[in-house]
Amino acid sequence: MTAVEGDGTAPPADAADPLHLMRLVFGTMAAQTVGAAARLGVMDALGDGERAADEVAAACGTQPRATLRLLRALAALELLVESRPGVFSATPAGRLLDTRHPRSHASPARVFTDPQMVRAWEDLAESVRTGEPTFPQVFGKGFFERLGELPELSAEFNASMSESTRATAATLPDSYDFGRYRTVVDVGGGDGTLLAAVLRAFPSVRGVVHDTPRGLAQAAGTMERAGLTDRFSAVTGDFFASVPEGGDLYLLKSVIHDWDDERCVTILRNCRQALPAHGRVLIVERVMPPVVDPTVAGWYLSDLNMLVNLGGRERTREEFTTLCEEAGFAAPSFSELPAPSVFSLIEAAPRPTGTATAAGHEPPPRSMARRRAPTDDLDDR
Fold it and tell me: What pTM was computed for the model?
């Protein structure tokens, strides 16, 4: 018996489509199909031309008949085309799983289908009941603490974040005048992909990447390849405790959505404490629409991913404004980055000391911020 089985009677014209619902139910299977293709290197084996399933199996070291079945499933998902029986080629979307593609998404496909990432999703209903992440209940510790115990997955995660950042790195330098600043501090900046793009475009600017030792593991290599080692430094630390002094622009990409409101205010308040009067904080995040927009369905899934794995959230313009004001900033300005990036720029200036927030009170001093464990950022990136 199939999952959707009828009696042959045509449904009424206004009846709901059960196939649409079942496509969503089978979404987990589709995701794991894509993840398996990325782990096995199927698109690298296919390359730009056509290859028979037996050739792909030989290149991947897989069983031929099972490989054919995987390739046909990928073709049904429109990542491959079967031009004649048993012969396949990649579609433009499928080529993004090739590690040699300039916009490869092979690492995100592997990371976001890994059991460490998806196991807590099985308890999504519990997260909705409680409003708390289920990852700590499943694994006995927080996401980033668990990631630190898995060096291979941690390296893959860093690569995934780098791949996901490339679209933003391609558009950000042309969308914001970094030349106004002397030193840009990329808070939670990981391997430095975004900061490298900024430094290449603005030769007068110096840069600092601030992250945990794990997060910074590939940063020096990124800057060396970009020829920027003389204008770059990596500073390890805990952004819940402090951020490096000396910057006049503090850049946070895909950091704020990882955390609940209290922790976000702590991070932003630490940036506010380090900023000179003329400085700015620049947040690069998705800004959720005030009402649901189905064309960006992935944003809402990212929001739930933050819930189950970290306890963070995606936020609206109003919610970002509240965070900034509670951290000691004036109401921020908002602008969208051009495609292919899906992010917005949220720029905030320090509010003069003694100026009340919209809520009518001065934020608590830095000493009241609770110290948290070191971390780095989770993107979908």
Answer: 0.83
